[in-house]
Design goal:
The protein has 623 residues and is of the alpha/beta class. It is built from 18 helices and 30 strands. Among the domains are: 152 residues, 3-Layer(aba) Sandwich (Rossmann fold); 90 residues, GMP Synthetase, Chain A, domain 3, CATH 3.30.300; 67 residues. Helices cover 31% and strands 25% of the residues. A nine-stranded mixed sheet has the order 2-1-11-10-12-13-14-15-16. Strands 17, 18, 19, 20, 21 and 22 form a six-stranded antiparallel sheet that branches. A five-stranded parallel sheet has the order 4-3-5-6-7, with helices on both faces. The N and C termini lie far apart (70 Å).
């Protein structure tokens, strides 16, 4: 059974003492993911592992699953998968957040390996992931009035030869030929033993998680049992999870944040997860009733991505008793200081940041939930792991360790680092002799706390001046009318890029661009970082886990700039401009001219040649 010591980690001294007292092997005897659930069931099998809310209604009677029951279901699922597809099968799943999703994930890792899939991806991309992963089984949500998962699953069965389809549906759902019903099939499996021998463990691959790629098919990242165990253990230790904690589980289970720090780490410590409906905080009813549910279930820990936390903080707590809350935890994107400040005002507690990455088994560093909180920091590295901030050489390689507060590239080493991508051709410049190049820019303070300065690819470079977009976003988010802010680089013929900012306003509050500009200039110390333009938009695009989707905004910014150039400055009002992420230079801009303007192709090409993106100028064909 994992040993978290008898004192919570609050400070750097606590962390160093924790590492010095015992080795990692002494603290973490578990060899497999199944060992975690065996240990938790042995410690307190009658304790609630998962509370499942389907609607979040005030009078709902939630489904509760104990640690004993969860262990049995995981064994049953592992037995089923082995029976269906033979030794060490690959089991993909397209499921919202359900008890059955946890059972599928951990059962798949016990028998073979899991392939969690974002069911919002296009069918063609999912088919490529299934083929690339070698998955033999696909577990999918059955027919649903709002979700098209089952339709996609049927199409994927036709597209991927030999794929075995397993359906998750209510008990009264009619049977389908050639489809295995998970609930029915589990009833026929033993829950007290494995029928196929020893569980997978150690350096065996436990899962292939796909990255959130912005172009083409996402890459598949290998997780080993050892890697997930080290990450999960570190998360539980740094968060100070205990069996008395109740954590709001709102992140999807195709994402490492939902599966590791808000999943495996909690299960290691015997914590209760409250799954707030299959859609989590993407469900408007849950956002509206969030504080009532926190009070009703006596939640001690509130988790969510910054955008989701920001949304619930706009809902009044009212007379709900949320005094049980001891902390909040957030990650997947940088935390705007205004959201952190508002969280403290509403709850009286601190919102702590976590740094994670798929390629590091989901976790890298955590601002300890029992500590005083490091404003703007993602805390210290997980126990028994290492994070260095390295200078980037001219050729892009990583060099020497940076001094305190010097910005460089964050590099990670430890047993939680993935052995690499399923396709080893993708490993170059990411994995090097056990060291992971995160691609994140950051620095450490004198106490070794880690701070994020943005993704290296998100850096705005204006005439050689490196501008951290977080500097702009943090300032803009302090304006009371701003709900979300996202700064990106706009192509510029002279400076290369200029900073622009997109803002989404708080509902029912109006503000002028001029007022926002004045706010930006009063709060941003670096004059080159003042936004050249501020665009007020209805909504800022988000990924399925609530991260701001900057590729889309970079494309919007480029399209606006080049449309103004071509249509207004060059006098070609009928021209159409399209900007897409990708291409040889990271951004491709296509300008389509009317046939009557065909003679202007050379003039447009000359103007666009001054920009850093890939440009295509063409003449519109006949309608």
């Amino acid at each position: 059974m994992a040993d978290f010591g008898n004192k919570r980690i609050c400070t750097l001294d606590d962390l160093q003492r924790f590492e010095a007292e015992k080795t990692l092997e002494q603290r973490l005897p578990e060899h497999s993911i199944l060992d975690v659930f065996i240990a938790s069931a042995k410690r307190n099998g009658d304790a609630t592992a998962i509370t499942m809310l389907m609607t979040g209604a005030a009078d709902e009677q939630p489904r509760r699953v104990t640690y004993d029951q969860l262990l049995g279901m995981i064994r049953g699922a592992a037995n089923l998968f082995s029976e269906l597809a033979g030794p060490a099968p690959g089991v993909a799943y397209m499921l919202p957040s359900l008890v059955e999703t946890h059972v599928t994930l951990w059962g798949a890792e016990t028998a073979g390996y899991a392939v969690p899939i974002n069911f919002l991806l296009q069918g063609d991309s999912i088919a490529e992931l299934l083929k690339a992963s070698g998955a033999k089984i696909l577990v999918a949500l059955g027919p649903h009035p709002q979700l098209d998962i089952w339709q996609k699953a049927l199409e994927l069965r036709d597209a991927v030869p030999g794929l075995i389809l397993v359906r998750v549906s209510p008990p009264d759902t009619p049977a389908e030929d050639g489809v295995v019903d998970l609930g029915t099939a589990l009833k026929a499996q033993p829950v007290d033993e494995l029928t196929f021998g020893a569980p997978r463990g150690g350096d065996d691959v436990a899962a292939y998680f796909h990255t959130g790629g912005t172009t083409g098919v996402p890459k598949l990242v290998a997780h080993t049992h050892r890697g997930q165990l080290v990450a999960g253990f570190g998360g539980a230790a740094m968060c100070g999870y205990t069996p008395d904690d109740v954590l709001t589980a709102t992140l999807p289970l195709f994402h490492v944040a939902g599966t590791i720090v808000a999943g495996l780490s909690a299960f290691m410590a015997g914590t209760e997860l409250v799954i707030m409906t299959p859609a989590g905080l993407r469900n408007p009813a849950i956002v509206e009733g969030f504080w009532r549910l926190v009070a009703q279930h006596k939640a001690t820990l509130i988790g969510g991505v910054p955008t989701a936390v920001g949304a619930v903080l706009q809902v009044p707590v009212g007379d709900n008793d949320i005094s049980a809350v001891r902390a909040g935890l957030t990650g997947a994107a940088l935390l705007p200081p205004a959201v952190g400040k508002r969280f403290t005002e509403v709850t009286g507690c601190t919102l702590y940041e976590i740094l994670g990455m798929t390629e590091a088994s989901g976790l890298i560093s955590i601002d300890p939930l029992s500590g005083s909180g490091g404003v703007g920091s993602v805390g210290w590295p997980l126990p028994y792991t290492r994070v260095d901030v390295l200078r980037q050489n001219a050729d892009g390689s990583l060099g020497e360790v940076c001094a305190a507060r010097e910005i460089g590239v964050i590099a990670i080493s430890g047993d939680h680092v993935s052995p690499g991508y399923r396709n080893p051709d993708h490993n170059d410049d990411v994995f090097n002799n056990g060291v992971l190049n995160s691609g994140d820019l950051g620095y450490k303070d004198e106490q070794g706390r880690v701070y994020i300065a943005g993704r290296s690819k998100d850096l705005i470079i204006r005439s050689g001046h490196n501008i951290d977009p977080a500097m702009i976003e943090n300032t803009m988010s302090t304006h009371p009318a701003v709900a979300l802010a996202a700064a990106v680089g706009q192509p510029d013929a002279y400076a290369g890029e200029l900073p622009v900012c997109f803002v989404q306003l708080v509902p029912d509050i109006d503000v002028s661009v001029e007022e926002l500009q004045a706010h930006a200039q009063s709060g941003i110390d670096e004059r080159p970082a003042w936004p050249k333009e501020i665009h007020i938009v209805d909504t800022i695009p988000l990924t399925t886990v609530g991260k701001i989707y900057k590729p889309s905004l970079r494309c919007d910014s480029a399209r606006l700039r080049i449309s103004n150039l071509v249509c207004n400055e060059l006098g070609l009002p009928n021209a159409e401009v399209e900007a897409v992420d990708g291409g040889a230079r990271g951004l491709r801009v296509t300008v389509t001219l009317d046939k009557v303007d065909g003679g202007s192709v050379a003039a447009v090409e000359k103007e666009l040649s001054a920009y850093l993106f890939e440009a295509v100028v063409q003449v519109r064909t006949a309608d």
